[in-house]
Structures are given as C-alpha cells and as structure tokens.
Design a protein that fits this description.
Structural class: alpha/beta
CATH topology of the largest domain: Rossmann fold
CATH class of the largest domain: Alpha Beta
Strand content: 15-25%
Strand order of the largest sheet: 6-7-8-3-9-10
Largest sheet: 6 strands, mixed
Order of helices and strands: EEEHEEHEHHHEHEHEE
Bound molecules: adenosine-5'-triphosphate, magnesium ion
Number of helices: 7
Number of strands: 10
Shape: globular
Amino acid sequence: MSSEPSHSRPPSPPQDTTLSLALGTDAINGSTSLASSGQSVYELRDVVKRFGRGPSAVVALDRVTLTVKQGEFLAIQGPTGEGKTTLLLLLGGLDRPTSGTILYGGRDLSSLSEQELAQLRASAFGFVFQTFNLIPTLTAQENVETALVPVHASPADRRRRAVEMLAELGLADRAKHLPGELSGGQQQRVAIARALVKEPAVLLADEPTGNLDEETRDEIVTLLERLWRARSLTLLMVTHDSTVAQRAQRIAVMRAGRLTAGVSRSA
Ligand SMILES: Nc1ncnc2c1ncn2[C@@H]1O[C@H](COP(=O)(O)OP(=O)(O)OP(=O)(O)O)[C@@H](O)[C@H]1O
Ligand SMILES: [Mg+2]
C-alpha cells in the first residue's frame, strides 16, 4: 500500500454515491448545476487562459466552467488546437489560469505556492501523454521509479512499488528493458505504471492512444477503464477519437476554448 500522505486526496464521498452519475445535467459553461450526488473533485468557474498580449493574444480557454465528480470518467473531445491540452495542464497544476478559479478538493489552485503545487503534482495527479515521454536511457522499472523520487520514497520502496505496478500491468518480464526495446503499447503501459505508482487521486491522460494502432488503442483504453474502476480514480482523458470518447461516462466537447458537454451515462 502507499505511504502517500492523505492530504493529496480530496475527501472521499459516501460509498454509495461515488458512481451515481445518472446526472442528466451538468455545470459545464454555466448550464444547470450538477445533481448533488457525489463529491466534486474539481470546480472550475469562468476559467480563461490567454497566451500573449495585444492583437496577437490567443485565448486558449474561454470562460470554462466545469464540475468533475470524484470517481468520474470524463472524456474531453475536440479538434486540434481548441484548448484541450491547455485545460489538462491547468487541471494538473502545471500552469495557472489568466483568470477564473480552479478548485481542487476545495482548494483554489491559483492561491497555492509553487511548492504546494509541486507537492500536489507529485502525489495527487498522474499524467499520461500521447508520446509516452519515457526517459530513453532508463529501463522500464527505472522510469516508473522516477515518479516516486519527488515523494521521497526510499530506494527499496521505489523498487518494490515499481516492480509491483509493472506486474499489475502485465509487464513483469519487461522491467529491465529500455523503452526503445518495447512496442508502443508496452511503452504506454510503462507510462501508465509511472503515472499510477504514486497512487494519485486523478489521472490526466492527453491523447493516450493517439500514437497507437486500433487494436492497441482498444487494449490501452480497456486497461485505463479497468484501472479507473479498481483504483476509484477520477479519469480525465483528452481524445479526438470518438470511439475512445464513447467509453467515458461523460463527454465534454472543446471548441475554440469553450467547453460543452452531453448527458452522463452510468458506467
Ligand atoms: N504556451 C503557449 N503559448 C502560446 N500559445 C499557446 C501555448 N499553448 C497553447 N497555445 C495555443 O492555444 C491554443 C490551444 O492549444 P492546445 O494545445 O490546448 O490545443 P489542443 O486542443 O490540445 O490541440 P491538439 O489536439 O492539437 O493537441 C492553440 O491555438 C495553441 O496554439
Ligand atoms: Mg493537445
């Protein structure tokens, strides 16, 4: 089990409400508020992200208002250049909004110091990227272990947890391999292991299947779905692929920095 400090997780909702997501309406872009079941992990209100100034400024996010429930699986879909990655970076505390508020577990991310944000990133948020972003000179196991350095796990603890995580993802026999010796799907599984070994509350995945063939794509989405359920994760997945987005409980569509969402379905 993790030695992760409990403050990295937002308060747990009562068991019976975690997945009661027959919501019908939601709070995206200021429409009707979410049904009151479950606890919010994120509350975004009028979030704007502007890059640059003057006439050349780009408004990547335009008054995004969104509530994400604990344990929810939300897909964020939309064409290229519409603000999806920008939103994910803000949710993961990797960047700050120009204006508006982002509450995570009731705390305003904008009000946190760099050190507090770094602490949250190290413990609460796991990231998975389209291009895997593994360190090519480290083995699969060493790549997974890197996630435990910022939380000050001992070397022995890092090794044990990395080995266990890789085994859970079916990669026990690949632990000593370098990324270049692994298939795309295997590399993405190592990246997922790295994201989850610290037992984050939230998994933020940016086009996690974008570089994979269809069969491997389906395998990775099925894996993410299994891990989401087994670990009671809040899973936020950016994708341009409708087949992938359909696997989520709710789909939010991003266009020109504006977010709109369909109706949730029970998983
Ligand atoms: N650091 C930055 N500086 C300036 N402009 C930026 C920066 N990051 C993003 N943008 C701009 O913000 C807009 C949204 O970019 P973003 O990367 O969020 O899109 P996206 O939906 O993730 O696209 P894709 O599907 O291609 O990954 C784009 O016009 C992009 O050029
Ligand atoms: Mg992107």
